[in-house]
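Ops channel
N.P.: pipeline sanity check, posting one input/output pair.
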């Protein structure tokens, strides 16, 4: 079968059992060959090939509405809906999105990049489409999120419809799933007697008698399993079934299609199925990958990155200062997976629960214990209210490490670290720090430890190129990296060296200042700059509204300075496209050439 010729999913309905299984094998091979070249979410997609084929075999998209939680598992869906021909452009500029994208296909009806929104979306689709079936595919970690619980609580009250929730249980989020809900799923998985009965009924029951036998099976289940979370909420629970057995998937989904009440179908899948390295992965290496050699697998990267430096500091702070480290399901992403086993009493993975993590960190701090909360910048947005009320308002000494700050390549608009400065800048008591290089990042950690108020340390998903020595930072202080008389550039983080490389051939005398304290501002240096009456260029890869740019403009207005000033940043309407960093910077006019053009304009 030529996957590149697929136009829509209707063709699967005419395939034999043998051909369906061949299709699954071809898709898995196709995914491995393509993702190894482009990078992308690998393990989760390998695990749901059969399940996704079965969904399209039993139901009819787009008449039936498919919702994929997060979208980490949507590649097979993209292939079956006519996008295999575009996979060479996956995660590239103007290419195929790694997530569900409404602009790509009529079959992509719910667009999300963050977890646990799918069930709330399902409620909305049910209310807005009384005559259409809505099917949601959600993972075992995403369904354990508070938002999912809220949605399930409400969904059971919607009358006259029969929503189908497909629980994709692979025992993983990015890394291993945690918490009581995860343990509940483990009990269901490990009840071999019930699973045997389960599989027996699925395989032998004729279609017309399945409803009768389902009621019998449910009675047996009640004798074997003492409790079930979903049935307590009013859902008909079916499972657990083998989600990598195509025949079982199809038969089970057909049975669910004929139910007249909300149901949860529990499938157990193998994350990374079909690729030995991914199947054996325990720490999330193959969750999201760059390009790699299929024969050798993903090789260890020994490059020094901001993330690796932060990880080193985390270990120092555990050993020397007995810090608690709170991490919402990003153990691998924040590079502390090796520390988990060394310091199990200090590192706490709370699962996909950023709100819970923020509140818990505050409580630890209020007990005079030291605590660091580690997460990605984009995921910090989920906990705004809790940062504000439970950390900022009461001035709790919580250090928040924000990885993947600034523009992020590959994942598109939902995974950008461009809003955090604006978010934390609006809250009382927060200090916001951004590191130029690894040595400065270390010193900012020590500074954050000293002060007794909430601190954000932000750093990008990048390797460190220039690692100049940074002197100890004792107080709020910017760094004059390069002196100049004609114009001053205010910037921060890894942008400092990007700016320096941009202007190295200019004949003009340009001052470059590393504004590592984004909040509070270094008013001493800022006043010296403003009093010189030099033109000022602000350069940042984040949203300027409410951020560093806004702070500088506000300071000028409040102190009646008249300097000629221009800012290079993202505006409030910026939606970041998929692509590499250079392409994204070009899209937003943030390239080295744009820096030079703005300097020339200011100096006219």
């Amino acid at each position: 079968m030529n996957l590149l010729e697929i136009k829509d999913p209707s063709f699967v309905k005419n395939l034999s059992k043998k051909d369906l299984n061949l299709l699954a094998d071809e898709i898995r091979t196709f995914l491995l060959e393509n993702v190894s070249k482009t990078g992308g979410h690998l393990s989760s997609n390998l695990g749901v090939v059969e399940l996704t084929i079965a969904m399209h075999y039993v139901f009819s998209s787009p008449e039936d509405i498919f919702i994929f939680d997060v979208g980490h598992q949507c590649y097979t869906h993209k292939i079956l809906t006519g996008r295999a021909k575009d996979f060479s452009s996956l995660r590239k500029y103007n290419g195929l999105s790694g997530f569900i994208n409404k602009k790509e296909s009529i079959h992509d009806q719910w667009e999300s990049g963050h977890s646990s929104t799918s069930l709330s979306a399902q409620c909305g689709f049910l209310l807005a489409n009384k005559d259409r079936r809505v099917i949601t595919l959600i993972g075992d970690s995403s369904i354990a999120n508070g938002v999912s619980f809220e949605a399930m609580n409400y969904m059971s009250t919607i009358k006259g419809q029969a929503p189908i929730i497909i629980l994709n249980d692979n025992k993983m989020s990015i890394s291993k799933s945690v918490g009581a809900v995860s343990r509940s799923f483990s009990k269901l998985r490990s009840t071999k007697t019930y699973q045997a009965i389960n599989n027996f009924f699925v395989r032998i029951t004729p279609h017309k008698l399945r409803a009768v036998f389902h009621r019998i099976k449910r009675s047996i289940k009640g004798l074997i399993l003492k409790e079930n979370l979903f049935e307590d909420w009013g859902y008909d629970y079916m499972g657990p079934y083998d989600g990598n057995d195509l025949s079982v998937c199809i038969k089970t989904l057909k049975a669910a299609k004929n139910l007249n009440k909300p149901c949860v179908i529990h499938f157990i899948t193998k994350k990374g199925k079909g690729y030995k390295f991914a199947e054996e992965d325990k720490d999330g290496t193959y969750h999201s990958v760059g390009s790699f050699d299929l024969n050798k697998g993903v090789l260890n990267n020994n490059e020094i990155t901001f993330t690796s430096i932060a990880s080193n500091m985390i270990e120092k702070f555990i050993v020397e200062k007995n810090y608690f480290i709170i991490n919402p399901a990003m153990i691998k992403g924040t590079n502390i997976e090796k520390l988990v086993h060394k310091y199990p009493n200090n590192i706490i993975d709370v699962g996909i629960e950023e709100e819970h993590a923020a509140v818990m960190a505050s409580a630890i701090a209020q007990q005079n214990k030291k605590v660091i909360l580690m997460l990605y910048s984009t995921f910090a947005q989920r906990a705004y209210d809790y940062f504000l009320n439970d950390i900022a308002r009461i001035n709790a000494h919580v250090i928040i490490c924000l990885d993947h700050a600034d523009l992020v390549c590959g994942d598109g608009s939902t995974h950008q670290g461009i809003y955090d400065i604006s978010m934390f800048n609006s809250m009382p008591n927060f200090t916001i720090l951004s590191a130029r290089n690894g040595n400065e990042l270390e010193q900012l950690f020590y500074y954050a430890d000293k002060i007794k108020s909430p601190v954000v340390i932000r750093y990008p998903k990048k390797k460190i190129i220039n690692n100049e020595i940074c002197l100890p930072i004792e107080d709020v202080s910017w760094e004059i990296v390069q002196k100049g008389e004609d114009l001053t550039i205010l910037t921060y983080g890894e942008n400092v060296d990007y700016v320096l490389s941009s202007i190295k051939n200019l004949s003009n005398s340009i001052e470059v200042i590393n504004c590592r304290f984004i909040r509070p501002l270094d008013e001493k240096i800022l006043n010296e700059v403003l009093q010189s009456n030099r033109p000022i260029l602000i350069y940042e890869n984040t949203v300027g509204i409410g951020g560093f740019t806004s702070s500088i403009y506000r300071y000028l207005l409040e102190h009646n300075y008249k300097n000629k000033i221009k800012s290079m940043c993202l505006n409030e309407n910026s939606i970041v496209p998929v692509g590499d960093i250079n392409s994204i910077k070009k899209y937003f006019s943030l390239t080295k050439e744009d820096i030079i053009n703005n300097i020339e304009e200011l100096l006219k």
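N.P.: looks fine end to end. The chain is about 40% helix and 15% strand.
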